[in-house]
Amino acid sequence: MMILKKILLSAAVLFTALSGFAQEKMIDKIVGTVGQKIILKSDVESMAMQYKSRGENHGDNLKCFVFEELLYQALLVNQARLDSVEVSDMQVDGELQRRMMMFEEQMGGREAMEKYFNKPYSEIESHFREIIKDQLIAQQMESTISGDISVTPQEVKKFFKSLPKDSLPLIESKIELAQIVIHPKIKDSQIEQIKKSLQEYKERSEKSEDFSFLASLYSDDLASAQKDGDLGWIRRGDLVPEFAAVAFELDKPGEISDIVKTEYGYHIIQYLGRKGERIHIKHILKIPKPTTAEKIKAKAKLDSIAESIRSGKITFEEAALLYSDDEESGKSNGIVVNPYTGTSEFTSSQLDPATNYILKQMKTGEISEPFESTSMKGKPEIKIVKLLNKTEPHIADINTDYQQISDLTKAHKKTELISNWIKKIQKTTYIKIDDSFYNCDFKYKGWLAK
Fold it and tell me: Could you tell me the residue range of the domain that residue 341 belongs to?
Protein backbone atom coordinates (compact mmCIF):
# COMPACT_ATOMS: atom_id res chain seq x y z
CA MET A 1 0.00 0.00 0.00
CA MET A 2 1.31 3.45 -0.93
CA ILE A 3 -0.08 6.96 -1.09
CA LEU A 4 0.84 7.00 -4.77
CA LYS A 5 -2.01 6.41 -7.17
CA LYS A 6 -1.52 3.21 -9.13
CA ILE A 7 0.51 3.79 -12.33
CA LEU A 8 1.08 0.92 -14.72
CA LEU A 9 4.26 1.22 -16.76
CA SER A 10 5.95 -0.98 -19.34
CA ALA A 11 9.72 -0.50 -19.44
CA ALA A 12 11.15 -3.82 -20.56
CA VAL A 13 12.58 -2.34 -23.75
CA LEU A 14 14.09 0.60 -21.88
CA PHE A 15 15.71 -1.80 -19.44
CA THR A 16 17.06 -3.71 -22.43
CA ALA A 17 18.64 -0.55 -23.80
CA LEU A 18 19.96 0.44 -20.40
CA SER A 19 21.57 -2.97 -20.02
CA GLY A 20 23.45 -2.50 -23.26
CA PHE A 21 24.35 1.06 -22.32
CA ALA A 22 25.92 -0.17 -19.08
CA GLN A 23 28.05 -2.84 -20.75
CA GLU A 24 31.73 -2.36 -21.37
CA LYS A 25 32.53 -0.95 -24.80
CA MET A 26 32.40 -3.64 -27.45
CA ILE A 27 33.27 -3.84 -31.12
CA ASP A 28 29.89 -2.97 -32.58
CA LYS A 29 28.59 -3.17 -36.12
CA ILE A 30 25.44 -2.75 -38.17
CA VAL A 31 23.64 -6.07 -38.56
CA GLY A 32 20.42 -4.80 -40.14
CA THR A 33 19.18 -1.93 -42.30
CA VAL A 34 15.51 -1.21 -42.93
CA GLY A 35 15.02 1.85 -45.10
CA GLN A 36 16.81 4.59 -43.18
CA LYS A 37 16.83 2.71 -39.86
CA ILE A 38 19.77 0.61 -38.69
CA ILE A 39 20.05 -2.18 -36.13
CA LEU A 40 23.30 -2.71 -34.23
CA LYS A 41 24.76 -5.93 -32.95
CA SER A 42 24.65 -4.45 -29.45
CA ASP A 43 20.89 -3.88 -29.83
CA VAL A 44 20.38 -7.59 -30.46
CA GLU A 45 22.74 -8.68 -27.67
CA SER A 46 21.11 -6.39 -25.10
CA MET A 47 17.55 -7.38 -25.94
CA ALA A 48 18.47 -11.08 -25.92
CA MET A 49 19.98 -10.63 -22.47
CA GLN A 50 16.74 -9.08 -21.23
CA TYR A 51 14.66 -11.97 -22.59
CA LYS A 52 16.96 -14.42 -20.81
CA SER A 53 16.60 -12.52 -17.54
CA ARG A 54 12.83 -13.02 -17.79
CA GLY A 55 13.25 -16.73 -18.50
CA GLU A 56 12.18 -16.40 -22.15
CA ASN A 57 14.79 -18.33 -24.08
CA HIS A 58 12.93 -19.30 -27.28
CA GLY A 59 15.21 -22.32 -27.58
CA ASP A 60 18.34 -21.92 -29.66
CA ASN A 61 16.61 -19.30 -31.79
CA LEU A 62 16.60 -16.43 -29.25
CA LYS A 63 18.84 -14.02 -31.16
CA CYS A 64 16.96 -14.70 -34.39
CA PHE A 65 13.67 -14.04 -32.59
CA VAL A 66 15.00 -10.80 -31.08
CA PHE A 67 16.47 -9.68 -34.39
CA GLU A 68 13.12 -10.11 -36.15
CA GLU A 69 11.42 -8.08 -33.41
CA LEU A 70 13.89 -5.25 -34.02
CA LEU A 71 13.45 -5.54 -37.79
CA TYR A 72 9.70 -5.18 -37.34
CA GLN A 73 10.07 -2.06 -35.17
CA ALA A 74 12.46 -0.56 -37.71
CA LEU A 75 9.96 -1.30 -40.51
CA LEU A 76 7.22 0.49 -38.56
CA VAL A 77 9.38 3.53 -37.81
CA ASN A 78 10.67 3.80 -41.37
CA GLN A 79 7.17 3.59 -42.86
CA ALA A 80 5.89 6.09 -40.30
CA ARG A 81 8.44 8.57 -41.63
CA LEU A 82 7.17 8.02 -45.18
CA ASP A 83 3.52 8.29 -44.11
CA SER A 84 4.14 11.34 -41.88
CA VAL A 85 3.03 9.51 -38.73
CA GLU A 86 4.53 11.46 -35.82
CA VAL A 87 4.48 11.83 -32.04
CA SER A 88 4.88 15.12 -30.21
CA ASP A 89 7.88 16.18 -28.14
CA MET A 90 5.51 16.38 -25.18
CA GLN A 91 4.57 12.71 -25.61
CA VAL A 92 8.21 11.69 -25.86
CA ASP A 93 9.28 13.76 -22.85
CA GLY A 94 6.39 12.48 -20.76
CA GLU A 95 7.08 8.83 -21.54
CA LEU A 96 10.83 9.30 -21.05
CA GLN A 97 10.31 10.83 -17.63
CA ARG A 98 7.87 8.12 -16.55
CA ARG A 99 10.19 5.32 -17.55
CA MET A 100 13.30 6.95 -16.11
CA MET A 101 11.45 7.56 -12.83
CA MET A 102 10.44 3.91 -12.65
CA PHE A 103 13.96 2.71 -13.39
CA GLU A 104 15.38 5.17 -10.87
CA GLU A 105 13.08 3.78 -8.19
CA GLN A 106 14.01 0.19 -9.05
CA MET A 107 17.71 1.00 -8.68
CA GLY A 108 17.32 2.84 -5.39
CA GLY A 109 17.63 6.45 -6.53
CA ARG A 110 19.34 8.68 -9.06
CA GLU A 111 22.80 8.44 -7.49
CA ALA A 112 22.69 4.64 -7.58
CA MET A 113 21.62 4.79 -11.22
CA GLU A 114 24.48 7.13 -12.18
CA LYS A 115 26.95 4.96 -10.30
CA TYR A 116 25.76 1.79 -12.03
CA PHE A 117 26.10 3.27 -15.53
CA ASN A 118 29.10 5.42 -14.64
CA LYS A 119 27.47 8.32 -16.49
CA PRO A 120 25.64 11.49 -15.41
CA TYR A 121 21.85 11.35 -15.41
CA SER A 122 21.60 13.90 -18.24
CA GLU A 123 23.67 11.66 -20.51
CA ILE A 124 21.59 8.59 -19.68
CA GLU A 125 18.40 10.53 -20.34
CA SER A 126 19.67 11.98 -23.61
CA HIS A 127 20.82 8.57 -24.84
CA PHE A 128 17.36 7.06 -24.50
CA ARG A 129 15.23 9.90 -25.81
CA GLU A 130 15.52 8.73 -29.43
CA ILE A 131 15.01 5.11 -28.42
CA ILE A 132 11.74 5.97 -26.70
CA LYS A 133 10.69 8.22 -29.58
CA ASP A 134 11.11 5.29 -31.99
CA GLN A 135 9.10 3.04 -29.67
CA LEU A 136 6.22 5.54 -29.51
CA ILE A 137 6.27 6.07 -33.28
CA ALA A 138 6.21 2.30 -33.81
CA GLN A 139 3.20 1.99 -31.49
CA GLN A 140 1.43 4.85 -33.28
CA MET A 141 2.14 3.29 -36.67
CA GLU A 142 0.87 -0.10 -35.52
CA SER A 143 -2.34 1.55 -34.28
CA THR A 144 -2.73 3.26 -37.64
CA ILE A 145 -2.41 -0.09 -39.43
CA SER A 146 -4.85 -1.99 -37.25
CA GLY A 147 -7.27 0.87 -36.62
CA ASP A 148 -10.38 0.34 -34.48
CA ILE A 149 -10.87 -3.39 -34.82
CA SER A 150 -14.37 -4.73 -34.33
CA VAL A 151 -15.78 -8.21 -34.77
CA THR A 152 -19.28 -9.52 -35.47
CA PRO A 153 -20.91 -12.39 -33.55
CA GLN A 154 -20.52 -14.47 -36.71
CA GLU A 155 -16.75 -13.81 -36.75
CA VAL A 156 -16.46 -14.76 -33.08
CA LYS A 157 -18.30 -18.04 -33.63
CA LYS A 158 -16.23 -18.83 -36.73
CA PHE A 159 -12.98 -18.14 -34.88
CA PHE A 160 -14.04 -20.27 -31.91
CA LYS A 161 -14.94 -23.20 -34.17
CA SER A 162 -11.55 -22.92 -35.89
CA LEU A 163 -9.63 -23.44 -32.65
CA PRO A 164 -8.35 -27.00 -32.04
CA LYS A 165 -9.79 -28.42 -28.83
CA ASP A 166 -6.35 -28.65 -27.25
CA SER A 167 -5.79 -24.94 -27.96
CA LEU A 168 -8.90 -23.61 -26.24
CA PRO A 169 -7.91 -21.15 -23.47
CA LEU A 170 -8.37 -21.93 -19.78
CA ILE A 171 -10.69 -19.42 -18.10
CA GLU A 172 -9.74 -18.54 -14.51
CA SER A 173 -12.18 -18.88 -11.64
CA LYS A 174 -14.21 -15.67 -11.20
CA ILE A 175 -15.70 -14.54 -7.90
CA GLU A 176 -18.45 -12.02 -7.16
CA LEU A 177 -19.08 -10.93 -3.59
CA ALA A 178 -20.92 -8.46 -1.41
CA GLN A 179 -19.68 -7.15 1.92
CA ILE A 180 -20.64 -5.27 5.06
CA VAL A 181 -17.66 -3.51 6.62
CA ILE A 182 -17.15 -2.07 10.08
CA HIS A 183 -14.12 0.08 10.79
CA PRO A 184 -13.27 -0.49 14.47
CA LYS A 185 -13.22 2.76 16.39
CA ILE A 186 -9.82 4.38 16.80
CA LYS A 187 -9.41 6.07 20.16
CA ASP A 188 -8.23 9.65 20.32
CA SER A 189 -5.40 8.52 22.57
CA GLN A 190 -4.09 6.26 19.77
CA ILE A 191 -4.10 9.11 17.26
CA GLU A 192 -2.32 11.35 19.75
CA GLN A 193 0.31 8.64 20.27
CA ILE A 194 0.86 8.39 16.51
CA LYS A 195 1.24 12.16 16.22
CA LYS A 196 3.65 12.13 19.15
CA SER A 197 5.74 9.41 17.48
CA LEU A 198 5.85 11.22 14.13
CA GLN A 199 6.84 14.46 15.83
CA GLU A 200 9.61 12.57 17.60
CA TYR A 201 10.86 11.10 14.29
CA LYS A 202 10.89 14.58 12.77
CA GLU A 203 12.88 16.06 15.66
CA ARG A 204 15.35 13.17 15.71
CA SER A 205 15.94 13.52 11.97
CA GLU A 206 16.34 17.32 12.18
CA LYS A 207 18.97 16.88 14.89
CA SER A 208 21.22 14.08 13.69
CA GLU A 209 19.46 10.84 12.78
CA ASP A 210 18.95 9.61 9.23
CA PHE A 211 15.36 10.03 7.98
CA SER A 212 15.90 7.03 5.69
CA PHE A 213 16.78 4.79 8.63
CA LEU A 214 13.74 5.94 10.60
CA ALA A 215 11.45 5.35 7.61
CA SER A 216 12.76 1.83 7.05
CA LEU A 217 12.28 1.06 10.75
CA TYR A 218 8.94 2.70 11.58
CA SER A 219 6.88 3.42 8.43
CA ASP A 220 3.66 1.46 7.93
CA ASP A 221 3.97 1.93 4.16
CA LEU A 222 5.85 -1.34 3.73
CA ALA A 223 6.49 -0.83 0.00
CA SER A 224 8.33 2.47 0.42
CA ALA A 225 9.84 1.47 3.79
CA GLN A 226 11.88 -1.14 1.90
CA LYS A 227 13.37 1.78 -0.03
CA ASP A 228 14.00 3.94 3.07
CA GLY A 229 10.68 5.74 2.61
CA ASP A 230 11.61 6.87 -0.92
CA LEU A 231 8.69 7.69 -3.22
CA GLY A 232 10.98 8.71 -6.08
CA TRP A 233 10.38 11.62 -8.48
CA ILE A 234 6.66 12.27 -8.65
CA ARG A 235 4.17 14.78 -10.01
CA ARG A 236 1.39 16.47 -8.07
CA GLY A 237 -1.25 14.38 -9.84
CA ASP A 238 0.38 11.15 -8.64
CA LEU A 239 -0.47 11.97 -5.02
CA VAL A 240 -3.65 12.28 -3.00
CA PRO A 241 -4.55 16.00 -2.68
CA GLU A 242 -3.84 16.50 1.04
CA PHE A 243 -0.39 14.94 0.72
CA ALA A 244 0.44 16.83 -2.49
CA ALA A 245 -0.59 20.19 -1.01
CA VAL A 246 2.03 19.87 1.74
CA ALA A 247 4.74 18.09 -0.27
CA PHE A 248 4.82 20.72 -3.02
CA GLU A 249 5.15 23.55 -0.51
CA LEU A 250 8.51 22.19 0.67
CA ASP A 251 11.51 23.68 -1.11
CA LYS A 252 14.67 23.11 0.94
CA PRO A 253 16.59 19.81 0.51
CA GLY A 254 16.27 17.83 3.74
CA GLU A 255 13.27 19.85 4.96
CA ILE A 256 10.67 17.80 6.83
CA SER A 257 6.97 18.68 6.86
CA ASP A 258 4.61 18.91 9.77
CA ILE A 259 2.24 15.96 10.25
CA VAL A 260 -0.13 15.39 7.32
CA LYS A 261 -3.43 13.50 7.60
CA THR A 262 -4.73 11.60 4.55
CA GLU A 263 -7.18 8.77 3.94
CA TYR A 264 -4.23 6.41 4.44
CA GLY A 265 -3.16 7.64 7.85
CA TYR A 266 -0.67 10.20 9.19
CA HIS A 267 2.61 11.18 7.49
CA ILE A 268 5.71 13.30 7.70
CA ILE A 269 7.41 14.13 4.40
CA GLN A 270 11.06 14.83 3.64
CA TYR A 271 11.85 16.97 0.59
CA LEU A 272 14.95 16.02 -1.42
CA GLY A 273 14.77 18.02 -4.64
CA ARG A 274 12.76 19.38 -7.55
CA LYS A 275 13.01 18.99 -11.31
CA GLY A 276 10.40 20.91 -13.29
CA GLU A 277 7.00 19.62 -12.25
CA ARG A 278 8.40 16.70 -10.27
CA ILE A 279 9.69 16.51 -6.71
CA HIS A 280 11.77 13.83 -5.01
CA ILE A 281 10.46 12.97 -1.55
CA LYS A 282 10.48 10.38 1.23
CA HIS A 283 7.83 9.83 3.87
CA ILE A 284 6.98 7.97 7.04
CA LEU A 285 3.40 6.73 7.34
CA LYS A 286 1.71 5.62 10.53
CA ILE A 287 -1.70 3.92 10.34
CA PRO A 288 -3.89 4.00 13.47
CA LYS A 289 -4.64 0.45 14.61
CA PRO A 290 -7.71 -0.46 16.67
CA THR A 291 -7.39 -2.12 20.05
CA THR A 292 -8.46 -5.72 20.62
CA ALA A 293 -11.46 -4.46 22.57
CA GLU A 294 -12.65 -2.35 19.62
CA LYS A 295 -12.20 -5.27 17.23
CA ILE A 296 -14.36 -7.44 19.52
CA LYS A 297 -17.07 -4.77 19.54
CA ALA A 298 -17.05 -4.59 15.73
CA LYS A 299 -17.24 -8.38 15.42
CA ALA A 300 -20.15 -8.50 17.88
CA LYS A 301 -22.04 -5.90 15.86
CA LEU A 302 -21.47 -7.82 12.63
CA ASP A 303 -22.49 -11.07 14.35
CA SER A 304 -25.81 -9.46 15.22
CA ILE A 305 -26.26 -8.10 11.70
CA ALA A 306 -25.45 -11.49 10.14
CA GLU A 307 -27.95 -13.23 12.42
CA SER A 308 -30.69 -10.75 11.44
CA ILE A 309 -29.97 -11.43 7.76
CA ARG A 310 -30.01 -15.21 8.20
CA SER A 311 -33.30 -15.07 10.15
CA GLY A 312 -34.94 -12.96 7.43
CA LYS A 313 -35.41 -9.80 9.52
CA ILE A 314 -33.41 -7.80 6.99
CA THR A 315 -31.81 -8.48 3.63
CA PHE A 316 -28.07 -8.35 3.06
CA GLU A 317 -28.60 -5.46 0.65
CA GLU A 318 -30.58 -3.43 3.20
CA ALA A 319 -28.03 -4.16 5.93
CA ALA A 320 -25.15 -3.05 3.69
CA LEU A 321 -26.87 0.30 3.06
CA LEU A 322 -27.69 0.83 6.74
CA TYR A 323 -24.59 -0.43 8.52
CA SER A 324 -21.55 -0.72 6.23
CA ASP A 325 -18.73 1.77 6.76
CA ASP A 326 -17.59 1.23 3.18
CA GLU A 327 -19.62 3.85 1.33
CA GLU A 328 -18.95 2.63 -2.19
CA SER A 329 -20.12 -0.96 -1.71
CA GLY A 330 -22.70 0.03 0.90
CA LYS A 331 -24.62 2.12 -1.65
CA SER A 332 -24.46 -0.73 -4.19
CA ASN A 333 -26.21 -3.46 -2.19
CA GLY A 334 -22.86 -4.39 -0.71
CA ILE A 335 -21.48 -5.47 -4.10
CA VAL A 336 -17.72 -4.99 -4.34
CA VAL A 337 -16.31 -3.49 -7.56
CA ASN A 338 -12.94 -4.67 -8.84
CA PRO A 339 -10.74 -1.54 -9.10
CA TYR A 340 -8.59 -3.22 -11.76
CA THR A 341 -11.44 -3.96 -14.18
CA GLY A 342 -14.40 -1.86 -13.10
CA THR A 343 -16.59 -5.00 -12.98
CA SER A 344 -17.90 -7.04 -10.05
CA GLU A 345 -15.73 -10.06 -10.93
CA PHE A 346 -12.45 -10.88 -9.17
CA THR A 347 -9.82 -13.54 -9.63
CA SER A 348 -8.32 -15.01 -6.45
CA SER A 349 -5.10 -13.01 -6.85
CA GLN A 350 -7.04 -9.73 -6.94
CA LEU A 351 -8.52 -10.24 -3.46
CA ASP A 352 -6.74 -9.61 -0.18
CA PRO A 353 -5.47 -12.87 1.38
CA ALA A 354 -7.94 -12.94 4.29
CA THR A 355 -11.01 -12.43 2.07
CA ASN A 356 -9.75 -14.93 -0.49
CA TYR A 357 -9.21 -17.55 2.23
CA ILE A 358 -12.74 -17.12 3.63
CA LEU A 359 -14.42 -17.22 0.21
CA LYS A 360 -12.66 -20.45 -0.74
CA GLN A 361 -14.56 -22.21 2.05
CA MET A 362 -17.99 -20.79 1.18
CA LYS A 363 -20.88 -21.85 -1.02
CA THR A 364 -22.84 -19.49 -3.27
CA GLY A 365 -25.37 -17.47 -1.25
CA GLU A 366 -23.63 -18.20 2.04
CA ILE A 367 -22.73 -15.42 4.52
CA SER A 368 -19.44 -15.60 6.39
CA GLU A 369 -18.68 -15.11 10.04
CA PRO A 370 -17.01 -11.74 10.88
CA PHE A 371 -13.28 -11.69 10.14
CA GLU A 372 -10.38 -9.26 10.09
CA SER A 373 -9.16 -7.91 6.76
CA THR A 374 -7.23 -5.02 5.24
CA SER A 375 -8.81 -2.42 2.96
CA MET A 376 -7.37 -1.37 -0.41
CA LYS A 377 -5.93 1.64 1.43
CA GLY A 378 -4.13 -0.55 3.94
CA LYS A 379 -6.49 0.11 6.85
CA PRO A 380 -7.66 -2.64 9.23
CA GLU A 381 -11.34 -3.55 9.00
CA ILE A 382 -13.81 -6.17 10.22
CA LYS A 383 -16.35 -7.52 7.73
CA ILE A 384 -18.75 -10.21 6.68
CA VAL A 385 -19.03 -11.27 3.05
CA LYS A 386 -21.66 -12.98 0.95
CA LEU A 387 -20.55 -15.15 -1.96
CA LEU A 388 -22.76 -14.07 -4.86
CA ASN A 389 -21.27 -16.20 -7.60
CA LYS A 390 -18.23 -18.31 -8.30
CA THR A 391 -17.17 -20.01 -11.50
CA GLU A 392 -14.71 -22.88 -11.50
CA PRO A 393 -11.64 -22.84 -13.76
CA HIS A 394 -12.76 -24.26 -17.10
CA ILE A 395 -12.00 -24.55 -20.78
CA ALA A 396 -13.50 -21.62 -22.72
CA ASP A 397 -17.08 -22.06 -23.88
CA ILE A 398 -18.77 -19.79 -26.43
CA ASN A 399 -21.99 -19.64 -24.40
CA THR A 400 -20.51 -18.65 -21.04
CA ASP A 401 -17.27 -16.91 -22.06
CA TYR A 402 -18.33 -14.92 -25.11
CA GLN A 403 -16.51 -11.71 -24.11
CA GLN A 404 -13.16 -13.45 -23.61
CA ILE A 405 -13.53 -15.26 -26.94
CA SER A 406 -14.52 -11.99 -28.63
CA ASP A 407 -11.31 -10.40 -27.30
CA LEU A 408 -9.29 -13.33 -28.65
CA THR A 409 -10.98 -12.92 -32.03
CA LYS A 410 -10.03 -9.23 -32.12
CA ALA A 411 -6.43 -10.07 -31.24
CA HIS A 412 -6.34 -12.69 -34.00
CA LYS A 413 -7.81 -10.23 -36.51
CA LYS A 414 -5.19 -7.62 -35.56
CA THR A 415 -2.40 -10.18 -35.96
CA GLU A 416 -3.63 -11.00 -39.46
CA LEU A 417 -3.79 -7.31 -40.43
CA ILE A 418 -0.27 -6.70 -39.16
CA SER A 419 1.03 -9.85 -40.83
CA ASN A 420 -0.39 -8.85 -44.22
CA TRP A 421 1.01 -5.34 -43.81
CA ILE A 422 4.51 -6.64 -43.06
CA LYS A 423 4.52 -8.87 -46.15
CA LYS A 424 3.34 -5.98 -48.33
CA ILE A 425 5.78 -3.34 -47.02
CA GLN A 426 8.76 -5.71 -47.08
CA LYS A 427 8.44 -5.80 -50.89
CA THR A 428 8.85 -2.03 -51.27
CA THR A 429 11.41 -1.32 -48.54
CA TYR A 430 15.20 -1.54 -48.75
CA ILE A 431 16.22 -4.32 -46.35
CA LYS A 432 19.69 -5.67 -45.72
CA ILE A 433 20.74 -8.08 -42.99
CA ASP A 434 24.12 -9.34 -41.89
CA ASP A 435 25.30 -12.75 -43.12
CA SER A 436 25.35 -14.02 -39.52
CA PHE A 437 21.51 -13.99 -39.52
CA TYR A 438 20.97 -15.66 -42.89
CA ASN A 439 20.32 -19.07 -41.33
CA CYS A 440 17.54 -17.73 -39.08
CA ASP A 441 14.12 -19.30 -39.55
CA PHE A 442 12.24 -16.00 -39.66
CA LYS A 443 8.45 -15.91 -39.40
CA TYR A 444 8.38 -13.47 -42.32
CA LYS A 445 10.66 -14.64 -45.11
CA GLY A 446 10.67 -11.20 -46.77
CA TRP A 447 13.60 -10.14 -44.60
CA LEU A 448 15.80 -12.42 -46.75
CA ALA A 449 14.20 -11.73 -50.11
CA LYS A 450 16.66 -9.05 -51.19
Answer: 175-185+290-394
